[in-house]
Amino acid sequence: MPHVITQSCCSDGSCVYACPVNCIHPTPDEPGFATAEMLYVDPDACVDCGACVSACPVGAIVPDTKLVAEQLPFIELNAAFYPDRQGKKLPPTSKLAPVPPAPEIQRHGMPLTVAIVGSGPAAMYAADELLTQHGVRVNVFEKLPTPYGLVRAGVAPDHQHTKQVTRLFDRIADQPGFQFFLNVTIGKHLSHAELLAHHHAVLYAVGAPNDRRLEIEGMDRPGVHTATELVAWYNGHPDFTDLPVDLSAQRVVIIGNGNVALDVARILTADPDDLAGTDIADHALAALRESKVREVVIAARRGPADSAFTLPELIGLTAHRLVVLDAADRDLVTADLAGEHDALTRNKLDILATLGDAAEPAPAGAHRIRLAYRLTPARVIGDDAVTAVEFVRTGTDEVCRVDAGLLATSIGYHGKAVADLPFDAAAGVVPNDDGRVTGAPGSYVAGWIKRGPTGFIGTNKTCAQHTVHQLVEDFNAGVLTDPAESRGALERLVAQRQPELVDLHGWHAINAAEIARGDGIRPRDKFTRVNAMLAVAAMAPRPTLRDKLRAALRV
Ligand code: NAP
């Protein structure tokens, strides 16, 4: 089999359109694309041209001859998506996946100008889609001095392949018509009404920054964290630099078993020397070097067949960590295996059935992760700090106590209300019709604030494209009001409200300085204080008048 899609697949579909024989599925127009855990190469149709390798923004596609040992299960995983043709190659075809048409601007006069709030994947994919049209201007507002949202502050540092998508985002940000307004908070420095006055439309791609809260006794104890806090802490998000993370106990419990729980468990059980070659925050690396944690228990309230983590992430976890089950959980896996399941679930159960036995002592000093099932969280025990977590076996009255010095809840994210827009507090989203905000003309949403906190980086590409299509349709129909103020007026207003504005040049300076601090050993050594970022951005060479004229002519 020539090419194989591996763990870091972001599902943005770039490979699908690059493939000359349409052998990567599901394609964005096929059912199942929105919920697919990854994309798959058809081994019998692949012509081994490598076009997909160049198109993939996260380096997830590898020729079979170059797979490393832990990637070998992905050969079978790709093939299993397709009917078994018993090794017979499909005849070559020149069929291409249907490329969705770009949102064509048909209205002449004042060029479309859009404010995007947020700079994560949904924001950057939306900007890219808008900039396919000549003359469009996109202004991206971000409250931090650094862009790219969860790719910078959410993706685990040991998943550097996934972080490579920032190279694509850098190229999008360098396009004519794109402007960064970093270190600017909408709702503080500028209001929604002010953004609307300076643009035809405002598109919010602000994600889902809050955690779902676990309502059990004892959640206010020191040593209880949300996964979001821990993830932001080890990723160097400046708001979490000083989070007190106590790793002095031998065991950590994580509640919830989605991919975020797996990320946190992997980082807490990693060899610090391996992490030293990543962009993990210095303070987190120092804490992990002193860590006494030897076991992380990932506790799910349902059974093995309902595990929330995806199959590629389970494969990655078991390849790099000692993962164990206790006897009762092994029985649950065996019982689930006797039932009917879709292919992905069966594959997960097959892997779970091969895990080590928690009763066997781990080698001295070794780290391990225990997957635990049917544990409904009941209360946190401890006076000054967490000492244990009490669960009830789901569906029974049996109480079960797990000793631990740190508890992380990883039970999903939740969106936060956006000032001046309607909000569905239960779902944590801004109510919308495929991106058009309900009852708020000129306002649009994309990403997690539009559809809720599910999916992968690339899922946001199709999501953002749909929103942009609605926006352009409204622009063409003359529904959007022309901005009352000029571009210069917007720049003056922002500079007046936020003198410490960081622009593209400022970001380039921060980026270059972080890479230089990495000293060739790490991809970057992140600044974790806003002041340090601003000091570097302030030193960025300012564009000359000639640069400005050249940029204006490129639009
Ligand atoms: P998630 O996949 O929705 O998992 C949430 C977990 O919390 C589930 O196990 C859920 O159990 C549990 N839970 C919810 N409420 C609970 C409660 N009251 N008590 C106990 N357990 C509770 O969320 P996530 O891990 O935050 O991930 C969010 C999205 O980001 C997912 O789509 C994920 O795939 C994606 N992501 C992907 C990657 C990657 O590809 N590497 C990395 C990180 C995140 P039930 O199933 O029983 O509700």
From TrEMBL:
PROSITE patterns: 4FE4S_FER_1 (PS00198), 4FE4S_FER_2 (PS51379). The keyword NADP applies. GO terms for molecular function: ferredoxin-NADP+ reductase activity; iron-sulfur cluster binding; metal ion binding. SUPFAM superfamilies: 4Fe-4S ferredoxins (SSF54862), Nucleotide-binding domain (SSF51971). It catalyses: 2 reduced [2Fe-2S]-[ferredoxin] + NADP(+) + H(+) = 2 oxidized [2Fe-2S]-[ferredoxin] + NADPH. Its cofactor is FAD. Keywords: FAD, Flavoprotein, Iron, Iron-sulfur, Metal-binding, NADP, Oxidoreductase. It comes from the Bacteria. Its EC number is 1.18.1.2. InterPro entries: 4Fe4S_Fe-S-bd, 4Fe4S_Fe_S_CS, FAD/NAD-bd_sf, FAD/NAD-binding_dom, Ferredox_Rdtase. It is an enzyme of class 1 (oxidoreductase). PANTHER family: GLUTAMATE SYNTHASE 1 [NADH], CHLOROPLASTIC-LIKE (PTHR48467:SF1). This is ferredoxin--NADP(+) reductase. It comes from Mycolicibacterium fallax.
